[in-house]
Request: fold
Amino acid sequence: MEKIYFDNNATTPLDPAVRAAMLPYLNECFGNPSSGHHFGEEAFAGITEARGQVAALFNCPAKRIIFTSGGTEANNTAIWSAIAAFPEKKHIISSTVEHASVLAPLEFLQQRFGYRIDLLPVRRDGALDLQLLAETIGPDTALVSLMGANNESGVIWPLAEISELCRQKKVLFHCDAVQLIGKELIDLEILPVDYLAVAAHKFHGPKGIGALYVKRTAPFSPLIMGAGQEMAHRAGTENVAGIVGLGKASELAADYLKSGESAVMDLRNRLQERIMADIGEVIVNGAGQPRLPNTLNISFKNCASGAMVQELDEMGISVSAHSACHSGDLDPSHVLRAMAVPETHIHGTLRISLSRFSTDDEVDRLCEVLPAVLAKSRQGVAV
Reply:
């Protein structure tokens, strides 16, 4: 059975060119980059090149890029840096639809240290009220932490407006841009973001490696302390092969975005149009708002997400019901709850996320089998 993978917002397949770039650093270039001999120098050179590749993707100086173990560490580091710089400010603003790597540390700060956390609501279409954001920022606000694009709905928020608002209000802005990287151009030369989090495995790089962009004027405090690696910003011997993979993935993403290629969006739109034409009573979550070009989050009336995901998987088609961080949770996600998806539909939601490797034939196959999968799911749902 041919396997079809439509869960790219959870993780993406490694690009063959990324694998090829990594291999020498898993074999002959195995040195510790802090060592003074030629093995160490080879490894250090690989890190240096990769830092430049990541910086080029964002049009920022290479020294502003700090390598981390992934998006979660990058988000945690940004939050820690902001509160460490302003210990007298006990207010943080975020949203109800953030990733757990932002919501969990904020909850910890609230419960353990008495921080006041304001989680801004979203509209039914996933949009954010910028006027409410402006009204919520106060003199004791240490940080605004808002994602660039939602990992479930795919809704993209206006980073230029948000970052400019934070700049005017003189408050730090952290953006979890994990889902945005490789799908939308980000120019940090003109976008006044203070912190921006990256995860390689979301754009055809390896797992276990990410990066944090820190603006020159933004305060920084190491989350992981020890020796002086990463310009004394992040202790621990570097994951050289992973860093090289992130660098190559960034280079490929930059080339892809500059080409203006729209095949993924065209494919997503064709999938959406065919489902809406073939199947009645569906809701496209985030419709009407700018969305990631690869993401379709769609809710079917009187269906069960878990049953549909399992049935499709048995047919060789991988999709998800919500974030991979909560894949074992049968309840609707906090994102769908925040978007007030109707009870008639919320339990029957699928997140279908494509990549630049997805094909027309794969989309056709999903469309062919989906009506029968829905019918079978509805048989087991009390209506």
Residues 38-58 form the longest helix (21 residues). The chain has two domains: 4-10+261-379, 16-257.
